[in-house]
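User: Design a sequence. Structure:
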């Protein structure tokens, strides 16, 4: 005789196993495509940092850039071995360097030449992102289980595992966005449960992996406003800071706060400070397509575009913040909503946004869509756009807004070529203006090949963000008053009783 519920339990266990197997299979099959279709520059940085950590010592990563190494690259239809002509100082926080150190040690033991951008190198250095994909999907499923149902949680797990931006980012590009998102999602889970110690620990882990952890500070501000007593989330933030600085202690003892300057100050305030957008299809990509200029210091109505971006961001963060703090006082789903909306605002409104950053709000928006169906149209558009953005190494011919750099390099090349010619032949070559014009024509021809797609997906990105905003406006909390429902009803009844008693007294008088 079968135990009641046994078949249901077998189905649930089978679903989780099948979903995990499918997600794992997809990723394992895609990793070998990374050397050809991925972005080898970032992979080169990761592997060289790992080699530097194992060969020179972990604490040297923030002292100087790593030595150059041979790398395989797919160029003009064939494999070539070259060395990348760029040296980058490690700009990831300490916990990421520990992961790179472990990968570097494994790579050293299995590869004699340690050639970069091979399938072996990709597997070894991408393993952290691949594992984090499953922790991320599990965290999203946990949030949906809390706020909706276990059945919806199972489907959430599968959706996150199979959403193309996540597996392309981890398996083919080889990035660590899932590594930072996995603890961030669990942080939100623990915040919603008011488990402040765990929330602080996981925020500290998030901050120790990538500097994008600062994007969750508006969410923590909402937590502080909504939570009483306030000292509990304050202690949680103190725990997060302690976790970050304890993890960084070896680097602090070795070279002070160089790790902080390299991973936080440089990334947040110095890198790419002069550009409106770095292939992120947001409002600034519209400006880029119209002007073919990515200079963020250019003026709009006498004000730099950077300033306009900060103003847009302030409004985009502030309006929903006030609404959530006032209207959603007792509904902990507010944390999921505001996490997704605030991260989306960081992607769509300010300048200097990277292409991959659209991945950051996606887990929270997917969770919101699993709780409220009205979010799905916007989320689907954003998933499509995110995939298009992070696959630009495959389809992009030339980056928009780069003509000033191309022109400068073209002039330098022209002067070099002319200098190599005998004096008597120099009068027979094209003039500098003609030479530059020909290069300009080629630039415009290459831009023409993809500009229609860029307009299309930029419009889809804006439509997806607008759809998410409209869905947010239509979503209401389960409890809108700051008191529990029972207490609120009792308060209303007490007021009515007092009003009746006052009316009776007035009649007697």
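Assistant: Done.
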């Amino acid at each position: 005789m079968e135990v009641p519920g046994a078949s249901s339990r077998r189905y649930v266990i089978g679903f989780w196993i099948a979903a995990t197997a499918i997600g794992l299979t997809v990723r394992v099959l895609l990793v070998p495509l990374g050397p050809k279709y991925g972005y080898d520059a970032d992979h080169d940085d990761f592997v060289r940092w790992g080699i530097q950590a194992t060969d020179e010592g972990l604490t040297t990563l923030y002292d100087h850039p790593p030595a150059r190494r041979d790398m395989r690259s797919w160029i003009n239809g064939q494999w070539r071995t070259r060395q990348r002509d760029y040296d980058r100082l490690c700009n990831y926080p300490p916990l990421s360097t520990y992961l790179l150190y472990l990968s570097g040690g494994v790579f050293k033991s299995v590869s004699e030449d340690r050639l970069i951008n091979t399938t072996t190198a990709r597997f070894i250095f991408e393993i952290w992102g691949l594992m984090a994909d499953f922790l991320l999907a599990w965290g999203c499923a946990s949030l949906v289980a809390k706020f909706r149902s276990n059945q919806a949680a199972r489907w959430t797990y599968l959706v996150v595992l199979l959403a193309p931006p996540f597996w392309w980012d981890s398996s083919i590009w080889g990035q660590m966005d899932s590594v930072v998102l996995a603890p961030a999602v669990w942080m939100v889970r623990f915040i919603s449960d008011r488990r402040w110690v765990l929330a602080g620990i996981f925020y500290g882990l998030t901050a120790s992996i990538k500097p994008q952890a600062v994007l969750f500070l508006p969410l923590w501000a909402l937590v502080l406003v909504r939570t009483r007593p306030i000292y509990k989330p304050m202690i949680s933030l103190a725990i997060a800071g302690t976790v970050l600085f304890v993890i960084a202690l070896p680097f602090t003892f070795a070279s002070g706060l160089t790790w902080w300057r390299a991973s936080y100050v440089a990334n947040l305030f110095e890198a790419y400070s002069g550009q409106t957008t770095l292939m992120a299809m947001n409002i600034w990509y519209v400006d880029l397509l119209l002007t073919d200029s990515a200079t963020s210091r250019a003026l709009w109505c006498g004000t730099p575009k950077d300033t306009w971006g900060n103003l847009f961001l302030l409004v985009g963060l502030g309006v929903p913040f006030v609404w959530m703090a006032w209207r959603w006082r007792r509904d902990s789903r507010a944390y999921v909503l505001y996490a997704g909306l605030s991260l989306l605002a960081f992607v769509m409104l300010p300048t200097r946004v990277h292409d991959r950053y659209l991945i950051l709000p996606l887990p929270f928006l997917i969770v919101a869509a699993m709780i409220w169906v009205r979010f799905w149209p916007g989320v689907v558009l954003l998933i499509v756009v995110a995939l298009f953005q992070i696959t630009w190494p495959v389809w992009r011919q030339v980056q928009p807004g780069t003509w000033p750099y191309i022109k400068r390099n073209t002039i330098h090349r022209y002067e070099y070529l002319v200098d190599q010619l005998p004096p008597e032949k120099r009068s027979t070559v094209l003039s500098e203006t003609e030479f530059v014009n020909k290069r300009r024509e080629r630039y415009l021809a290459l831009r023409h090949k993809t500009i229609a797609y860029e307009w299309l997906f930029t419009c889809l990105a804006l439509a997806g963000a607008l759809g998410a905003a409209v869905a947010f406006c239509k979503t209401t909390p389960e409890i809108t008053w700051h008191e529990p429902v029972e207490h609120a009803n009792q308060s209303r009844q007490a007021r009515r009783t007092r009003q009746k008693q006052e009316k009776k007294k007035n009649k007697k008088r």
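The chain has 22 helices and six strands. The mean pLDDT is 92.
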